[in-house]
Specification:
The chain contains four helices and 17 strands. It has 387 residues and is mainly beta. The chain has a single domain (60-89, 127-386), classed as Beta Barrel (Porin).
């Protein structure tokens, strides 16, 4: 299959479709705080100043190829599906304008689907050495892997655990709101956010109507020795759902790096009330290990597991762009084996990976639910060009 195509829009329609979001970015000009986001995180930010009044442009391209097979077994009968895709996973362009040392406009968009999708549209204000305020649209501080920039996530796609909580359930991911950052010193940092409860790029929280979500991250970064670095933290989130119900979830993460080896662990648990008299107590986790060989080659492995407690999860949602069988599951396991080749640091990188996933305990589907087993497996390849 060629590069993914969608129906082209005229320039006027593109402008109209994104007019409110662009206005949000401009309104953000009147807003908040500073310091660029840390190199690997989209929501974490320590104490720093803006150093100059300037305009900077950035871009990131991710040409990608996926080949994924699905093997579905129902009452002993097997069926297979396959999907091949050659496409731009991301085609991003961004601009940062430092109005002064305390005020920055930050805008980043993805046009890989030939439609402008806002990634960041905010005003950043530096409030002294230890406090910052961001007003606008960005990722909410929930889930370390999800808030890590896609340029720095080592596997080609994020884990089943991350995708379940942030893409399927929607507790995190992108929200418009106000985010306050504080540096306590000695490696301790916090992020507090109040946002609209809907993943949208133009709406603001209706605080008086209760139409808002809240987020809190507390993290500690430091060293055990000159060679050993660590970072540990906890995220809390509350989000009312549209219509009825709500979600409360917590995520803990711990990262350890020493010499050429890096280990990352994240676990997430929460109560999902869909407003239908039933609450799902879901839990998920992933563990990732990687090792560098010299300055160019990196090998990595990641395992992830999700137990939804009855919340319907498609395997094609947990494993991005896998063929869809129509069945949903209570349990999903996934494994990723991959390698990264840093041809010019992280600015020019080739990633190759094998991904496997299994769904069990079928909850719904187009056929019988007894003795249902679905396995997805295949290969991904991506090039990163970043400037």
């Amino acid at each position: 299959m060629g590069i993914r195509q969608t129906k082209a829009s005229t320039g006027f329609r593109l402008f109209e479709r994104n007019r409110k979001a662009l206005v949000l970015g401009v309104v953000s000009l009147m807003g908040h705080f500073g310091g660029s986001i840390a190199s690997s995180q989209e929501v974490n930010s320590g104490a720093s100043d803006f150093f100059s009044e300037n305009l900077s442009l950035s871009g990131r391209f991710h040409p990608q190829f996926d080949h994924l097979d699905s093997n579905l077994t129902v009452d002993g009968e097997e069926s297979e599906l396959s999907a091949d895709r050659l496409f731009f996973r991301r085609f991003m362009a961004g601009v940062k304008l430092d109005l002064n040392k305390q005020l920055r406009i930050n805008y980043l968009a993805d046009v890989s689907d030939r439609v402008v999708k806002n990634q960041v549209a905010r005003l950043e204000i530096q409030l002294g050495k230890r406090d910052k305020l961001f007003v606008g649209y960005q990722k909410s501080p929930f889930g370390y892997e999800d808030t890590t920039s896609s340029a720095n996530v080592k596997p080609i796609e994020r884990s089943a655990n991350t995708r379940f909580w942030n893409e399927v359930v929607g507790i995190g991911s992108y929200h418009a709101g106000v985010y306050q950052y504080h540096d306590f010193g000695d490696g301790w940092n916090s992020v507090f956010g109040v946002t609209h409860n809907v993943k949208a790029d133009s709406d603001w929280p209706d605080l008086f109507g209760g139409d808002f979500a809240s987020y809190l991250r507390l993290s500690k970064k430091g060293t055990f020795s000159p060679e050993v670095e660590h970072e540990t933290g906890v995220d809390l989130a509350y989000k009312p759902l549209e219509g009825a119900g709500d979600i409360f979830a917590a995520s803990v993460f711990s990262n350890l790096s020493f010499s050429e080896i890096e280990v990352k662990f994240e676990a997430t648990a929460g109560e999902i009330d869909q407003g239908q008299g039933e609450t799902n107590s879901a839990i998920g986790w992933h563990l990732q290990g990687s090792r560098m060989f010299g300055d160019t080659v990196e090998l990595l492995v990641r395992y992830s597991q999700v137990d939804t407690d009855g919340y319907k999860l498609k395997l094609s949602s947990a494993i991005r762009k896998a063929p869809s069988s129509g069945y949903t599951y209570e349990n999903v396991d996934s494994l990723y084996l991959g390698s990264n080749f840093y041809l010019k640091g992280n600015n020019l990188k080739l990633s190759l990976g094998y991904e496997w996933g299994e769904g069990s305990n079928a909850l719904s589907g187009p056929g019988p639910l007894n003795a249902v087993e679905e396995i997805v497996s295949g290969f991904r390849a991506r090039t990163q060009i970043k400037f």
